[in-house]
Structures are given as C-alpha cells and as structure tokens.
Write a structure and sequence with these properties.
Length: 175
C-alpha cells in the first residue's frame, strides 16, 4: 500500500494559524513585531530572539451530528517581548491586541477550513520581577470545523447533499 502523506483538516488549520502569526509585524501595522519569531508547540525561552509568538494546538471537543463531526479545537497563542523602558503592562496589552486582531481577522486563511474562530480568554499570567526584561501574554481561541465521521481528512460540508438532490437521485433510481 503506497499512501502519500495527507494532512488532516485540523493540521491544515494549525498550519494556516502558524503562517498567519508570521504576519504580526510592525511593518504591517501591528504594535509588536511578534511575527519575527514564530514557534509551534514549543515554549518561547529567553534564548529565543524576542519578540516571539508561539501556537499551542490543544484538545478538541466533538458534538457529532448525522454524518459528520462538529469539532471545536482550542488553540493557545503566547507572545513574549522585551519591554525596555516601557511599562510591561502596556507592552503586554499591545501584544494581546495584536494576537486577537490577527487570529480573528478575516484575512487569516482558514476561512475555507473552519466555520468560526472565537476569542475565549487571554491576558497576562504574571508580570516580570525586577531585573527581568520581557513580558508575556496569552490568548485562547476556539476554532470550529467539521469533518466526515471517521475521516479527519475530509470536510463534511463538501459531502453533504441537500434533500432535494437526494429526492432527485431516488426518483431517477425508481424510474
């Protein structure tokens, strides 16, 4: 059996999110240049080039409906930046705004793969101690998408047949 590598719909969504995070650049009108370093599933460390952003795809819930999975994947996005002589809270709020705007903006190229992206929560986990030079923030998003039951590689909406089409098929079979 020779199967080529296929990406699940979930993987395609994650890839689009990671690619989209790279657009968070000051040259594109954002406040903080988070997109200069983008990580996936890896914690940003002090050794990384800052500012930086990371995407953490987490678990997902399923509310199955006939013929398809109605999935909601949770994604945590984290940003980390040096604050220099600025107030760390101001820098964290700027990063949070940039992340929310990017993730929920229609230009993020997952609209063909998902039904909606909703901002669930976010903010600062903790502020830097004296002598520290960087501040971080996080934002959690819920991404809703559908797949065919038993086949995470196929979007279910492309398989749905409306009722009138089914009637036409059944009428042509019986004649």
């Amino acid at each position: 059996m020779n199967m080529s590598f296929r990406e699940t719909i979930r993987e395609q969504i994650i890839g689009a999110i990671v690619t989209g995070l790279a657009d968070i650049r000051t040259t594109s009108g954002y406040n903080v240049d988070l997109g200069s370093t983008v990580k996936r599933g890896q914690i940003i460390s002090d050794k990384d080039v800052l500012p930086a952003v990371a995407a953490f795809p987490l678990g997902e819930d399923n509310e199955p409906i006939p013929g398809r999975n109605n999935l909601t994947m949770t994604v945590r996005i984290e940003g980390l930046a040096k604050f220099g002589n600025k107030n760390p809270s101001v820098v964290a709020e700027a990063m949070l705004g940039d992340i929310i705007y990017r993730m929920t903006h229609p230009s993020l190229s997952i609209s063909a793969l998902s039904e909606k992206i909703e901002y669930a929560e976010g903010g600062v986990d903790e502020y830097p101690d004296p002598g520290q030079y960087a501040v971080g923030c996080y934002a959690i998003f819920n991404v809703n998408y559908k797949t065919k039951i038993g086949d995470p590689f196929i979007q279910s909406d492309s398989l749905l047949i409306n009722r009138s089409d089914m009637m036409s098929v059944s009428e042509s079979i019986s004649t």
